[in-house]
Amino acid sequence: MISLRKRRTVVVRTYSLELDGKTITIEHGRMAAQADGAVVVRSGDSMVLVTACMSPSVPNLPFFPLTVEYREKGYAAGKIPGSIFKREGKPSDEETLSARLIDHQIRPLFPKAFQNEVQVIVSVLSHDQENDPDVLACVGASAALSISKIPFAGPYGTVRVAADPETGNKIINPTYEQRENSDRDMVVAGNAESLLNIEGEAHEISEAEMLDSMTFAIESIKKLVDFQAQIVSEVGQPKVEVAEPEVNQELVKRVEDLAADRIRESLTIAEKSVREDAQEKIIDEAVAALADDYPTEQKEIADVISAIAKREMRNRILKEGTRIDGRDVKTVRDITIETGFLPRAHGSALFSRGQTQALASVTLGTRMDERLVDNLEGKSYKNYMLDYNFPPFSTGEVKRIGPPSRRDIGHGALAERAIESVIPDDKSFPYTIRVVSDIMESNGSSSMATVCAASLALMDAGVPIKTAVAGINIGLITDKDSGNTAILTDLLGIEDANGDMDLKIAGTRDGITAFQMDIKIGGIAIDTMREAFDRAHDGRLHVLNEMVKAIEAPRAQLSRFAPRIITMNIDPSQIGAVIGPGGKIVREIQESTGATVEIEDDGTITISSLDGESGEAAAGRIKGIVSVPEIGEKYHGTVKSIMPYGAFVEIMPGRDGLLHISEIEERRLDKVEDVLTVGDEIEVIVMNVEANGKLRLSHKRLEASIEELKAEAEKSGSSSGGGGSRGGRGGSRGGGRR
């Protein structure tokens, strides 16, 4: 007997919201039913599946184990992945940045006591090349977590804001084309009362414009929150209750009595390592003093002392306005700058702000060095890139060194965006630019130190950036009971760890170029953001004033170790003549001069070399090939070869003509060798330019008039009057890769 199991009933619910002329749809119930929370979010033909799962057990970890994975499927855009295995591999930098964006938004909304492992996975299922899936993923993460049993203080909303370049009107969730034409590209996330996250880039817009864009986003964010609240009311699960950890009040009191005064004293030590050593000693002595009564509670004792240190640091700032290193809340740490620090790099700068130090180096390359970006939007090339490295010695630690971490990728991308708007276009500066920031020492805001060091190194390299760029971070300390707040300029590492906000803002004297905010509380009010932006403006100008003391403008000359690039344009019909059959001519030019020649379909030729002479030699050869000699023009040529009927004379690099034996002298010659040998220099005049481009030269008619020569050429019926066909294009583009 065969029994058939009844198929489960699938209830699919679809919800839609109109947002600034676009429809966002959230679907629940069709896919991933075993996940704690799962939704499909759609706008246009872009679709993402977002799932949220929680482990049943609590791992013994000193942090909240939240992971976010953002993965783009090749099929979403009708593409087969380009790797050797033809399947998706490790996350790209773009996927990593999208995952970090979601992480920054959701992390502060979990209960402090919650320690279960949580994993949010975003799968991009369809991409229409217009609607960016990352904002849909943020909305989906909020919805999936909010409807699940996972403890989460949602929902929240996320939108992207751009501005129309003609009208200035702001746009919610713009298309890629609208973003490309906008002077800002910012992601804003928040709940019904406050902001959770901002991140993006801009073209030197003012603080007022930034705040205006955030305020504009809030209306749409509230609509998204209400929209998701409706979904939660219909399909949401009861939340798992989070038990507050039991606190041994007697142990806390004993530790307070033993250590509180000494911890307060240690918080006056400005030197990071000395302070940390002092606090470690306090912990060790407290553990020893309480060993008889609490022999196994070493971790609990250390946790209590850490909590005391956090409380006392915050109280001192809120009540006295004094920080660990003695600064007030507005002062930036001392800055020192050295440029040209690395003798062989094309540009370098060592930027130190307090105990944070970044070494930035610049390397200039050619178009051959551009970085390939292959994602769902298609293939593209980057001719400017910034990489950030954070070695463990920068904080005096011993750790495994591996590939760039998510943090490295995120900090590098933020600094790259900060500088990007001042980088010259590739027409005026045809170099590939790679900036590397190696953090030598870190005690707060190494990403903003990277921005400063990178700007200085670019100027040292002679890259004609429009203006200097500096970065500063702003922190926040709040007291729920009293309502007091303190906004801090230029955070220390401990202020970042024990504070409530880390707002990073980079820009020029004229405006903001990049920004990112991480918080540890449930949200930041817009009025607090306004004050933080004003503080960041003052701090940024202070840093720029220090930077200009080290270097005022880009150096006039590139490093002697940098490649030299020459750009020239020829008629596309002449490309074949430069390349030659099977690439013969362009290869010969490269081999003989040592330069690299890249040829584009529009006739743009880029010549790069390690020295200017090689590039000029290659350019001269190409000019000789594509130039159009005219009848009557005189040249100082060199005999390249001798035939029974005459000599071939090179009149310019790569261009020669026939000097017939009868055109050498007035007298009759039996042999060319009677008067000429290979290598001889001789004055010649162009008598005729044949239709196929071949040149007829004369030595004996140097004094002939142009009219006389043209009349004779027309009489022979073989003149083209100059120029002529250059033949087919075929063959390789030599050094070019396009």
Task: Give a concise summary.
The protein has about 750 residues and is α+β, with helices and mostly antiparallel strands. It folds into five domains: about 15-235, GHMP Kinase, N-terminal domain (Ribosomal Protein S5, domain 2), CATH 3.30.230.70; about 250-320, Polyribonucleotide nucleotidyltransferase, RNA-binding domain (Arc Repressor Mutant, subunit A), CATH 1.10.10; about 335-550, GHMP Kinase, N-terminal domain (Ribosomal Protein S5, domain 2), CATH 3.30.230.70; about 565-625, Ribosomal Protein S8, Chain: A, domain 1 (2-Layer Sandwich); about 635-715, Nucleic acid-binding proteins (OB fold (Dihydrolipoamide Acetyltransferase, E2P), Beta Barrel). The protein has 15 helices and 29 strands.
How would you sum up this structure, described in words?
Mean pLDDT is 92; it is low at 722-738. The protein has 15 helices and 29 strands. It has 738 residues and is α+β, with helices and mostly antiparallel strands. An 8-stranded antiparallel beta sheet has the order 8-7-9-10-21-20-18-19, with helices on both faces. Strands 1-2-3-4-6-5 form a 6-stranded mixed beta sheet. Helix 1 packs parallel to helix 2 (133-147), helix 4 crosses helix 11 (526-550) and helix 8 packs across helix 9. Strand 5, helix 1 and strand 6 (118-126) form a beta-alpha-beta unit. It folds into 5 domains: 13-235, GHMP Kinase, N-terminal domain (Ribosomal Protein S5, domain 2), CATH 3.30.230.70; 249-320, Arc Repressor Mutant, subunit A (Orthogonal Bundle); 335-550, GHMP Kinase, N-terminal domain (Ribosomal Protein S5, domain 2), CATH 3.30.230.70; 564-626, Ribosomal Protein S8, Chain: A, domain 1 (2-Layer Sandwich), CATH 3.30.1370.10; 634-716, OB fold (Dihydrolipoamide Acetyltransferase, E2P) (Beta Barrel), CATH 2.40.50.
